[in-house]
Amino acid sequence: MLGLLLTPVLLHVAWISALVLVPVAVALALDAYRALGHALTGAYLVARSGTVRRSTVALQRRGIVGWTVRQSVFQRRAGLVTVLATTAAGTGAYAVRDAGQADGLALADAAVPDLLRPFLLGADDAPARVTEHQRP
Predict the structure, then answer these.
(1) In the chain, fewer beta carbons within 10 Å around the N or the C end?
(2) Tens of pLDDT along 39-70?
(3) Closest Cα partner for 116 from 73, 88, 85?
(4) pTM, two decimal places
(5) Distance (Å, rounded) from C-alpha 23 to C-alpha 55?
(6) What is the tens place of the pLDDT at every residue in 81-133?
(7) Dihedral over Cα of 86, 88, 89, 91: its sign
(8) Which backbone phi and psi does 44 adopt, to 5 degrees?
(9) For the chain, first and last CA: distance in Å?
């Protein structure tokens, strides 16, 4: 709009920028997608992400003290979540980015059994609570 009102040079700057920046943004997005990953291997939770600065984290599962689940508006539309493993060591929390909702929650539940399970909807296999005293 400013290009039409002020000078046509701004219009040329806009289309040239779009022509150059859109392919760069698409290439970086594809690279970030290829770098995503998470796994449980033995006693470790391994998470990887990043495009320009890739990072891989191997966190001991016994060091995880809690979970935080975040979801942006765009992640909600795509059915994704970011699951943060909270720990007392290092930076305090390590992210498993853009995991599918069911996959991310299942990963958190499998990494530290019974920590997240009481908060999951439809967790039928949650341990039953004893409400009556049993007599010997």
Answers:
(1) C
(2) 999 899 999 998 888 999 999 999 999 999 99
(3) 85
(4) 0.71
(5) 24
(6) 999 999 988 888 999 999 999 999 999 999 998 888 888 776 555 444 433 33
(7) positive
(8) -125, 145
(9) 83
Supply the DSSP string of 63-124, one letter for each residue. Answer: GEEEEEEE--HHHHHHTEEEEEEEESSTTSEEEEEEEEHHHHHHHHHHHSTTTSGGGSTT-T
Beta bridge partners of residue 81, listed in sequence order: 99
Mean local confidence (pLDDT), 16-23: 91
Please state, as a whole number, how many other Cβ atoms lie within 10 Å of the Cβ of residue 132. Answer: 5
Residue keyed to tokens 């000078």? 7
Q: What residue type is assigned to position 22 of the chain?
A: V
